[in-house]
Amino acid sequence: STVTACCCLKIYDRDAAVQQILSETTDPDGPSPLARLCWCQCAPIPRKDAGIQNIEAISAFAGVTLQSGTHATAGSLETVRWGDYDAATRTLKTTGFGGWYQPYNTGTWTE
Length: 111
What we know:
The protein has 111 residues and is of the alpha+beta class. It is built from three helices and four strands, in the order αααββββ. The protein has a two-stranded antiparallel ribbon. The two termini are 15 Å apart.
């Protein structure tokens, strides 16, 4: 649809979505028109690895998780592999949609 073409990177099937979420850059075909206009993101951006895959207790979160339940975003796929992790405070700063604060995070959460 027109809204999807403007606001989303792409529509992927499930398996391809997982590969995109774990990709080391944002969409290799380039950002959506919305990202180009609102965030001045004109090319794929390398993602910042939070390093959580190296911490045994939380390493599974570096993969892709599935939200289950009956809430509005049930069935969504996401990862927290990309972001700023502070081992001293055990705090991860990440955004679901990217944007100004973490533009490398676009495409890491599906709806």
